[in-house]
Write a structure and sequence with these properties.
The protein has a three-stranded antiparallel β-sheet with strand order 1-2-3, with no helix packed on it. It is globular, with a radius of gyration of 13 Å. A hairpin with a 5-residue loop joins strand 2 and strand 3. The protein is α+β, with helices and mostly antiparallel strands. The protein has two helices and three strands; from the N terminus they run H-H-E-E-E.
């Protein structure tokens, strides 16, 4: 989950901050996996969007 802001509440649920390059690596490795909502695709302006 991309939380963008690390809060004590999120940390209590197991969230942890990661460096941006590591986050993008996770995105690229998992961006073509099928989800319940469909497959992801690269958006025109960067990032990911559901197809």
């Amino acid at each position: 989950m991309d939380c963008q802001v690390e809060t004590p509440h999120l940390v209590s649920l197991g969230a942890r901050g990661i460096p941006r390059p590591e986050f993008y690596d996770y995105l690229m490795r998992n961006s073509y996996e099928k989800t319940l909502a469909g497959k992801w695709k690269l958006a025109d302006k960067g990032g990911l969007a559901l197809q």
